[in-house]
């Protein structure tokens, strides 16, 4: 259960030099959870539909929110939407449910973050519709539909077969005047609505994620659609309210399913920050210099990435790139096999930059994982961008940036086992994997045996550090005992809960939070400079855990030149 | 437009057609000799280059393999502007794709340049049992509109190299023998009218 100290001391004055967390924890305010969740519900207003007795109370126990129930029991909850209200027609339920439990775990609920190869991209279960039991048992549905009730996208099942279901969702939304319905609870299920002009987005979930998380996931799905079509798609609805949008999104199922999958493994989806590939400062500088060179020649943004990690990025003067746009762009490029075959030139829209207009993206993979994206406003710029790429590629090869990047991908990022022992790192100390650039290139000790111990000192299992000024985060590698994809997903869900409770406008903002349940000790610390999230062994000693967090933040500061891209935003110096 | 220097011709070639007709598969078969049963949708347009050597000249193709999705239609001029050759592709198992192909031809005739060398490729010829568009219909349409016609299969490689060789030959014919900068419009147009049929 929750363990919290009630604070007596006044809140320390937040300064630019963060006060050691020990001091802050003398006044921990993790207010009682009933209150937290009540406030959250209160702020939602506009409830429609029935609140099912008892379900609310269960939700208010914090311990439960962290342990996401993975296997759904048999009975669908009652609801008027038809979503789970009636039984499907197919017989032999037992066998089917059996099969689904496995199925639901393996693919419906996503693969492990570090072995994404096992997650098969693309839409599954297209044969399903709302009459299929299997469809009803999916834990998390996402829908996009038009204001006239026409289906646009569904995570599972064929959109066209879901026309009736879509119309029902539309009816629920329009039943509440002014399209203001935000949340319906029905038993274990939450139905979250987001209205964006003529486009409605709906999530139906029994994953116990907080409303805010689900809503921000809907926002990202909407953003992904804008990235593909721009907001000018609204005009089609002005001309014809019954406009069918599905042909316009032809072939993009995979982009959406990969985004939805990333809600399980990519912290960028809830932190609204991006992460960098760890690299020696000089190496990143070299990459930045050549990107800056092309940015000066009329390229709006030049971005070099390894999978979802940024190697370097540069924007033209006054142009700044929102982390959400980067997430959506990287997801778009990585999920489309087409970009890997050849160089491409494609219209894309960055919704946070300008939701109305297309930019043109030159995309080229420099090796299997590393790709360069050059964005411009000019539709004729292909040959210029191609020349830029040739120049960039030459410089990157000459300065070994590409090989350094590949090595860093192999080595991975920070590991809790490597946390320096002293609270202040000895001069010259850099953890082995962060100093690879200074070691002889082929020294075998750089490669560590995986999953040797059981986490770091004081039972530290994992941490995420988000730099507020840089819009960047660093997340430690997963290590024992958080090995399986299931455990990793559960931890991310717990972080999401923590994140949304820390950012809850109703009861926040909080500075610190300490939580203990049967799975973890979770610790969160927010200062004007950073947000820090850590997970410990559930039996970890509190004082020691707090001390350890201080050491981690010092460690992060010590290696910040290698794990963060400096000088990428106007706020940094 | 084709640029000639000595016997080197650089030519921009664009592939157009409905989604799933096999544009990318044709290009990959030609450029890399590959074929995948499940080729993913192209995003925007993919750019390839390939050099073909004929006796008369060496042709360097800049190939724009455009996405067939409806959302990219309005952006097509960006890719076909300045092209020396265009291949409009349809799928013999889909009447819809043939209708779409005819729309592409109309658009090219309306907006493209009059010297554009146009081929109509009836792809997926290996799927004879699922055929919906008769070979005569394709031929007939090509004849009426001054296109060259070929039935192709990226899967079996049938007529794929032939398609690009035929384009190359037309390009050589269409370009002046020496880089004098003179253009022989009359002859080019004459060539364009001819109908080539290798499918029989």
* CATH class identity of the largest domain in chain A: Alpha Beta
The count of helical stretches of chain B stands at 6
Structural class of chain A: alpha+beta
Query: Biggest sheet of chain B, open or closed, and with what strands and sense?
Result: 7 strands, mixed
Per DSSP, what share of the residues of chain B sits in E-state strands of 2 or more residues?
15-25%
Percentage of residues in strands of chain A:
15-25%
CATH superfamily of chain B: P-loop containing nucleotide triphosphate hydrolases
In helices, the fraction of residues of chain B equals 25-40%
Could you give the order of the helices and strands of chain B?
EEHEEHEHEHEHH
Number of domains of chain B: 1
Instruction: Provide the CATH topology of chain B.
Output: Rossmann fold
Overall pLDDT level of chain B: 87
Tally of extended strands of chain B?
7
- Largest inter-chain interface? A-B, 27 and 20 residues
Indicate how many domains the architecture of chain A comprises.
Answer: 3
User: In the CATH scheme, what's the topology name of the largest domain in chain A?
Assistant: Beta-Lactamase
CATH architecture of chain B: 3-Layer(aba) Sandwich
Level-2 CATH architecture of the largest domain in chain A: 2-Layer Sandwich
Determine the fraction of residues in helical runs of chain A and give it as a percent range: 25-40%
InterPro entries (chain A): FUZ/MON1/HPS1_longin_1 (IPR043972), FUZ/MON1/HPS1_longin_2 (IPR043971), FUZ/MON1/HPS1_longin_3 (IPR043970), Mon1 (IPR004353)
Function (chain A): Plays an important role in membrane trafficking through the secretory apparatus.
Pfam families (chain A): Fuz_longin_1, Fuz_longin_2, Fuz_longin_3
Protein name (chain A): Vacuolar fusion protein MON1 homolog
